[in-house]
Amino acid sequence: MYEAIRPPMFFWHTRNDASVPMQNSLLLEHALWEKGVFHEMHLFANGAHGATLANERWKQDDNGQLDTEVQYYATGRYELTEGGAKEMHPNLDLTKFTSVEEWIQDCKRRRALNVANRRTNASIAMWPQLADLFLQQLWQ
């Protein structure tokens, strides 16, 4: 299936992402290059996981993301399964959670810490312009 569908791909990552290793993006970039997929990857020196635009609105947690109970439940149900825990958190013991509700509370606690430690990043904030330039290349 992959051979038949090769959409262009633009993506970026930060070197110090504490949730997803930078190596994942490097491996993806190499695989795309090997397959001849038109792509562009940007690697930013600093930035948190989920930085979106890393601007002032994001720093204040006013970026329009929908962190609803439904999303927490959907994530929690999967991640609390044996397969989900191994896939999503291979180094984390999720057996300490006895219910999805406990998982939700932990997610909220971790999110609050994340929001409190956010820093704006002008380099990351320009990724939409970089993506636009990438897309313009497709139409030349």
Question: What topology does this entry show?
Answer:
Blueprint lengths: L8 E6 L7 H14 L3 E6 L11 H4 L9 H11 L2 H7 L11 H17 L5 H4 L1 H12 L2
Parallel strand pairs: 1-2
Molecular structure report:
The protein is mostly helical and 140 residues long. Helix content is 49%, strand content 9%. The chain is built from 7 helices and 2 strands, in the order E-H-E-H-H-H-H-H-H. It has a two-stranded parallel ribbon with strand order 1-2. Strand 1, helix 1 and strand 2 form a beta-alpha-beta unit. Helix 3 packs across helix 5. It is globular and about 50 Å long.
What's the short story on this structure?
With 140 residues, this protein is mainly alpha-helical. Helix content is 49%, strand content 9%.
